Amino acid sequence: MQSSCPNFHPAQLKEVFSRFATSEAIELESTLYSTLALEVSKCRDLLELASFTQYSQPAPNMLFAAIQYLLLNGARHALKQFYPRLATGPTSYSAVGDTLKNFCRENREAIVELISTRRTQTNVVQRSSCLLTGLSLVSHSSKCQDLCLVDLGASAGLNLNLDLYSHCYYQGSSELFKAGSPESGVRLRTEVRGSKSLPPNQSVSIAGKVGIDLNPIDVYDSDSVLWLQSLVWPEHHERYEQLNRALELARTNPVNLIRGDAAEKLEDVVDEFPRDQALVVCSTIAEYQFPQKTRDEIYGILVSASKHRAIWRLSMEGSPESLLSLVRYEDGAQIQYTTLAKCSPHGLWIEWINQAERH
Ligand SMILES: C[S@@+](CC[C@H](N)C(=O)[O-])C[C@H]1O[C@@H](n2cnc3c(N)ncnc32)[C@H](O)[C@@H]1O
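Above are the sequence and the S-adenosylmethionine SMILES. Below is the predicted complex in structure-token form.
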């Protein structure tokens, strides 16, 4: 086991867990995580345990992923009864606090090892439906037949396979349109909110795909896949199904994943794509983990590379509400910034805005 030390003060985490219990867990409809987070916020020992989370990582997500990982990996404990993926689900949560404390006491070493060495790498394929609307716009406006995609913080690279998924956009009870591969086993449905229409639904042709991640998830490695599955919240059955189907598809349609810091690897990756193809550098809910230096360097690389080719930066970032934004770089400068849409961080809904600012 690696030596670890606490990275947070328990008092600081008390607030983090109680906020998680009353906001994030409620918004994302997890009664179990809301209940567990409340228990953690009231218990000094559990807060002290959670303080071993790496500084750049969200402590509740890490602690609960570690616990679920151990349970999915076969840990025999009464805590299992509260996990719908592992049992039929409890009728009451009255005993959950003591059961949680007991589980964490018995598995303390394993939990510390997990939360101090791993990261939240949740690969949410539903986010790709939001990305696709932005790509559709680039495809339309660039007049390039083919797009090349670079995903920064790609995790297992599953969002790079978005052209292989079936995307359905709906409003109320009406289906607006479908995109992607209609026969795909990965079926994604996104609610369209607001009064503005999404961009013209044209098919997006992707000629090249590369993902960069500090720790790319190998879709053939069962332990890495188990960690990815453990990051999906227990009540999110559909998301779990989508993840497993996308992983299956990725095993027969592998994407090129490069290990390293996004900024350190980007320049070489950009150089590899033919200049007559529209290059889109994207990210989804990943930038919050990048140091400021990495973000600044990414900007510099894109500005410099745009002296030789047009480049777009498409990002879906921010929580509890995300913004989908598109930046265009050309002739060595950022020439346009457009806020395309508001969307849910999990890509469950999108509200088109398309507000451009010239630079
Ligand atoms: C929350 S996950 C998001 C994964 C994926 N983009 C999605 O939306 O499904 C963030 C990812 O960013 C990666 N990451 C964090 N810092 C990074 C850096 N400096 N360079 C490259 N990847 C990084 C993490 O390893 C993780 O896989």
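The chain has eleven helices and eleven strands.
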